[in-house]
Amino acid sequence: QVQLVESGGGLVQAGGSLRVSCAASGLTFSLYTMGWFRQAPGKEREVVAAIARSGRGYYADSVKGRFTISRDNAKNTVYLQMNSLKPEDTAVYYCAADRTPTMGGIRTSRNNYDYWGRGTQIIVSS
């Protein structure tokens, strides 16, 4: 049974930093592109960042230069380091796994992702 478990969310002031983690089990982690998505109240779920099997990263324009995604295949874990947080970053953040056939492949549509975590809430106060 595949499980993705996020941790590290919470409340932070604008300008602050947080790191969220996602521990995966029940799958061959190294064969999956991993993504972070977020969903704010009343809005659709959107991609924030993704990391290919090769380690290549993708970032949404709204977080470029502030967020960094990384993965540790030995620990079956993907991380999202978030700096210079803004109130508009407030959302539930979800980890997701996409079984991509290529080392460098990254797909940003949520419809491509096979497995999802339950999410972790991040609130950025102004």
Q: Work out the number of β strands.
A: 11
Structural category is mainly beta
Overall pLDDT level: 97
Total helices: the number is: 0
Any idea what the shape is? globular
Helix amount, in percent? under 10%
Low-confidence residue ranges: none
Strand content: over 45%
Instruction: Give the biggest beta sheet.
Output: 7 strands, mixed
Report the C-alpha radius of gyration, rounded.
13 Å
Terminal-residue CA separation = 40 Å
Oligomer: single chain
Fold topology:
Blueprint: E1 3-7, E2 10-13, E3 18-25, E4 33-39, E5 46-51, E6 57-59, E7 67-72, E8 77-82, E9 91-98, E10 115-116, E11 120-125
Parallel strand pairs: 2-11
Antiparallel strand pairs: 1-3, 3-8, 4-5, 4-9, 5-6, 7-8, 9-10, 9-11
Structure description:
The structure is a single chain. This protein is an all-beta fold. The protein contains no helices and eleven strands. The chain has strands at 3-7, 10-13, 18-25, 33-39, 46-51, 57-59, 67-72, 77-82, 91-98, 115-116, 120-125. The strands form two sheets. Strands 2, 4, 5, 6, 9, 10 and 11 form a seven-stranded mixed β-sheet that branches. Strand 7 (67-72) and strand 8 (77-82) form a beta hairpin. The N and C termini lie far apart (40 Å).
